[in-house]
Amino acid sequence: LPWAPLLSVPAVLTYNHVFADTDATFNSEHVKSVVESLSLEYDAHGGSVVACALHLIMPWSAFLVLIVSARGRYAMNVHVKVQGVLKRSLTLHAAAAFLYSLMIELAPQLLTAMFGLKQLPATDTVFVMKTAFADLFFVLGVCCMLMALQDTVPRWTTWVPLVQCVYNVMNDYRWSNHSSVSGGVAVNHRLNTVDGGIFVSLVISYTYAHFNAVIVTDDARKRK
């Protein structure tokens, strides 16, 4: 399309506004200062980048295992029926994601009070992070709900909510046992119990659905 390049104009203007300094340059010294500030942030909380990287083994391992085992009936392009445990898991997942998104946007104070967390300061960084989190939760809810409304889906699509739940469980672990990340300052147990209970249950449900899904043949799909 001849007008397509115009779509990049807002991104370019935003980049220049946010990242350009007085000399309109984005030099290596700025990058170095950002990296150093990240290291200081980890050190201030009694942890390290290495500790965080070790935690990330959990979701990355789940993702790689699914990719490596994608053969035969577990192939990514195989279609499976959306029914039973899989449908209920997707519906619950979507409801939780929509609820988190709405509460982050409309009632963040209520959300932090429910989980016994400290109120966040009203800063630009917190505002950007809050709206980004709400965006991601909303999109996650849309994906799960659209999948729950289908009769069949490609198997690979069911891996997306499964891996997201594994990542969430990793976060629950870090919140409840994160002396290596935040100097041993405990996150309120209500958050770990409620959030962890939901997403551990979903990991189990999605895993069960993965191994017990009903395969739909190409002929059966064509007849529909």
Describe this structure as you would to a colleague.
With 224 residues, this protein is mainly alpha-helical. Helix 8 packs antiparallel against helix 10. It is globular. It starts with 8 loop residues before the first helix and ends with a helix.
Short recap of the structure:
By secondary structure, the protein is mainly α. The protein is 71% helix and 4% strand.
List the helices and strands and how they pair.
Blueprint: H1 9-19, H2 28-44, H3 49-55, H4 57-68, E1 79-81, H5 84-106, H6 108-114, H7 124-148, E2 152-154, H8 155-176, H9 179-182, H10 189-212, E3 215-216, H11 218-223
Antiparallel strand pairs: 1-2, 1-3
Helix pairs in contact: 4-8, 5-6, 5-7, 5-10, 8-10
Going by helix content, strand content and strand pairing, the class is: mainly alpha
How much beta, percentage-wise? under 5%
Percent range of helical residues: over 70%
Reading the helices and strands in chain order gives HHHHEHHHEHHHEH
What is the approximate shape? globular
Q: In whole angstroms, how far apart are the ends?
A: 36 Å
* Poorly predicted tracts of residues: 1-25, 42-46, 179-184
Largest sheet: 3 strands, antiparallel
Radius of gyration: 21 Å
Number of strands: 3
Strand order in the sheet with the most strands: 2-1-3
Mean pLDDT, all residues = 77
Continuous helix count: 11
